[in-house]
Every structure is written in structure tokens, then in C-alpha cells.
Design brief:
single chain; alpha+beta; about 35% strand
């Protein structure tokens, strides 16, 4: 599980995409600007391939407010997806 207390990546995401993985689930966080709105886009997909080599059909996305609160909600969503789709992430083990 991703621990919210230790996952302080928002300042990094302001400038660059942030990628990581957790037991078979890969993820990417990036800043998305839509007009005057700035959102935090989170994408998850199963290992073993990186973002560019993974078909779009295997990626799942969700948008959050670009703030610390939005980051906390994003972590909750990623953890929920990890637990709820455990069989998908376990395939690569």
C-alpha cells in the first residue's frame, strides 16, 4: 500500500511526470491543465511494461484536484484499485 504520510510528490509533479510501481501495479501522476483548471491525472496499469509500451485498453485513469487534498484522494484511489483488482496485479508474479 502507498502510505499517504510518506507520499509527498506534488511539488515534483508540478514540473515532471512521477512514475512508480507497487507489487504488479504501475502508476503515473501528472499535472493536466484544462483551461484555467489544473488537475492531477493518475494512471494505473499492470506490469511488466512501461507506460508507452502498454496498450491504452489496459490503462485506468482518474482525475483529482491538484492540491494536497487531491493527492490524498489519489492515493486512496490507487490503494482501492490495488486491493479491488488484486488478481490483475498478481498475474506478473
Amino acid at each position: 500500500m502507498i502510505e499517504k504520510e510518506r507520499f509527498h510528490v506534488l511539488n515534483y509533479v508540478k514540473k515532471e511526470e512521477y512514475t512508480g510501481s507497487m507489487d504488479g501495479m504501475r502508476y503515473m501522476l501528472r499535472k493536466q491543465e484544462e483551461g484555467q483548471d489544473t488537475k492531477l491525472e493518475v494512471t494505473i496499469w499492470p506490469e511488466p511494461f512501461g507506460y508507452a509500451a502498454t496498450p491504452e485498453s489496459k490503462k485506468q485513469r482518474m482525475n483529482f484536484v491538484f492540491s494536497e487534498k487531491g493527492l490524498e484522494e489519489a492515493v486512496d484511489w490507487m490503494n482501492d484499485q490495488y486491493e479491488g483488482q488484486k488478481a490483475l496485479w498478481d498475474v506478473v508474479k
